[in-house]
Amino acid sequence: MGVIVRENFNEDVELGIWEITEDYDELMSMISLDERDLVTVESFKNHKRKLEWLSVRTLLKELLGKDSKIVYGPERKPYLYNNEYNISISHSKNLTSILKSKKKRVGLDLEFMSTKILRVADKFLRETELENITKSQEIYHLYLHWCAKEALYKICDKVDINFVTNLNIEQFNPREKGRMFGTVNNSYMNERFTLNYFTLKNYAIVWCYK
User: How many domains does the chain have?
Assistant: First the structure.
């Protein structure tokens, strides 16, 4: 299928989403990998994990117009080898997404929605956040909160963050597309972020940049 969403924001930030319909050989034929990356992708025992990994590199090539190597920091935060862009990556089920920017910090999360989130909501939400969930759209609203906190976790380098105590999502009414606000408060910062969101094919997608 390839790229199903490609959108620019603020002249410097770009969001891309790839729907995985290709098989392993098709994805492999779309990119050029060095020997180390070939060893990495072949080391995955799970076939779906291989497709996810390849689709990330394929989408990145589409967005940049060239093959680029992804490396990871100590907290498993992804970087481009040449530091040309800041990037955030997310994948779930059949979708892969990347948010990139030369000048902004970026955070992104995408999740396929299911009822399983009902069993774990109290593990990542404060009591006040749980009280503000819209019952008629409970699953969607919960996933927006989860994705928002994941996006904040990523934009803040995944350091010293507990989803309940350090991240707070302000009350909002869920729509098909919109904005919400979240705060990160830990030993490194006390900062408020604007988060953008939308839903697509039973997925919740949230991203932020600053």
Answer: 2
144 touches 180 (CB < 8 A): yes
Range of the domain at 163: 109-209
CA geometry: angle 84, 188, 13, nearest 5 deg: 30
In tens, the pLDDT along 152-181 reads 999 998 778 999 999 999 999 999 999 999
Cβ-based neighbours of 56, under 8 Å, separated by 6 or more: 70, 89, 91, 96, 98
Cα separation, 20 vs 110, in Å, equals: 14
Q: Which regions in the chain score pLDDT beneath 70?
A: none
Task: Report the predicted TM-score, pTM, of the whole model to 2 decimal places.
Answer: 0.94
Where is the domain boundary, 53, 72, 104?
104
**Residues 40 and 123 reside in one and the same domain:** no
| Residues 166, 125, 180, 99, Cα dihedral to 10° | 70
Single-letter amino acid code for the residue at 136: S
196 and 123 in a common domain: yes
pLDDT value, residue 83:
85
Determine the pLDDT at residue 3.
95
